[in-house]
Amino acid sequence: MTISRRQLLGTAAAATAVVKAAGAQKRPAPLAVSSANGLKAVELAVRRMQQGIDPLDAAIAGVNLVEDDPNDMTVGYGGVPNEECVVQLDACVMHGPTARAGAVASLEGVRNPTKVAKLVMETTDHVLLVGPGARHFASMNGFAVENLLTEKARKVWLFWKQNLSEKDKWLEPDAEHYDPELKAFIEEFGWDEFRKPKTGGTIHLSALDARGDLAGCTSTSGLFFKMPGRVGDSPIIGAGCFTDNEVGSAGSTGRGEANILVSGGHLTVELMRQGKHPREACLMTLERIAKTTREKRLLDAKGRPNFGIRFYAVNKRGDYGSASMYAFSSSGKRAQFAVADASGARREDCLFLFERPS
Fold first, then answer.
1. Strands 214-223 and 89-95: what pairing?
2. Closest by alpha carbon to 280, among 14, 16, 18?
3. Domain boundaries, the chain
4. What is the pTM of this model?
């Protein structure tokens, strides 16, 4: 059933229903929640935790499936490159039992930045390594330099370059001769994204094991056609991911700049600490973002954020949830997230702040 914020919290009776629904939705650990592109990831993460694997190792194993998939152009191998046609990846991990974290940003030539982020956490006194420093660290730890630019991603970048301006020397391609892969990409992300590079892709996964230990992991190739060196929220502990073993774990996908400004991952966990259900905590974080977004270029005709962002969370009790800025994307797709537990892996609808973008 689709529930809006107004329907959920509009009356005392609805508030009572939330409490009952929270109990009804509770699932036995292990449990994993993720962005919608992580259906297989959460399934694998839960399977690993059922085998007794640490929740962070399980989360990373799940995310690696998506990082290794060239057909998922949002992370890892096959990720959409920056404006110079270079794939730069960001990732972070956070381990609840030890309260430690590691991250890398603008990392080149490694398809699994989450593995490097874990090594930063385990083998250094640092939390975040970036650019050439992150690449050197990866090399010291045996990661060879890989070419992460797939032929499909190269075609997408070239198509964007050709359509970027009518005043440059590139000729716009004939729509009748679009490559089938390009047609599929345009259909998924929309034509306007080639004019204004604001779309990106990410996977976040939070995991809870049978012992009640938590972990979080986020990975991305970032904003499509971003400026070289741009870093979003994904590798920022407290923004793209935050885990507190006494409370819960949360993370996000979508416009990273908006999330960084409110420390959304940390805020969501703090709201759960106050007793909020994970899905309500996610929604309240979105409300904070909507309230603090004031630049006209970032607002639609109704004064609402003109971008998408979603949060995902699980608490120590095994309650979980997700919320999206909009119930539907501009292309009409329903906002969903992935979850896996003893009942199996599935997608569920996100709670939402607004019905659909104008």
1. antiparallel
2. 18
3. 5-354
4. 0.88
CA 355 – CA 358 distance, rounded (Å): 9
Q: Distance between CA atoms of 1 and 14, rounded to whole angstroms?
A: 14
CA–CA dist 307, 166 (Å, integer): 26
SS3 173: coil
Summarize pLDDT for 270-320 with one digit per residue, the tens: 999 999 999 999 999 999 999 999 999 999 999 999 999 999 999 999 999
Neighbours of 166 (CB within 10 A): 7
The CATH code of domain 5-354 reads: 3.60.20.30
CA 93/CA 103 separation, integer angstroms: 6
290 by Cβ neighbours in 10 Å (0-12 / 13-18 / 19+) ranks as: middle
Active site positions, annotated:
202
CA 101 to chain centre: 17
Look up residue 237 and give its two tokens.
């502990």
Separation between Cα atoms, residue 132 and residue 112, nearest integer Å: 16
- Residue 236 makes CB contacts below 8 A (sequence gap 6+) with 92, 103, 128, 260
Separation CA 315–CA 334 (nearest Å): 24
Cis peptide before 55 (omega within 30 of 0): no
**Spatial contact of 35 and 312, defined as CB atoms under 8 Å apart:** yes
Q: Hey, what are 283's tokens?
A: 């929604």
The Cα–Cα gap between 202 and 221 comes to 7
> How many Cβ atoms sit within 10 Å of the Cβ of residue 322?
31
CB contact at 8 A, 3 and 351: yes
319 alpha carbon, distance to own chain's centre: 19
Note whether 5 and 351 are within 8 A (CB). yes
pLDDT confidence bin for 356, thresholds 50/70/90: confident
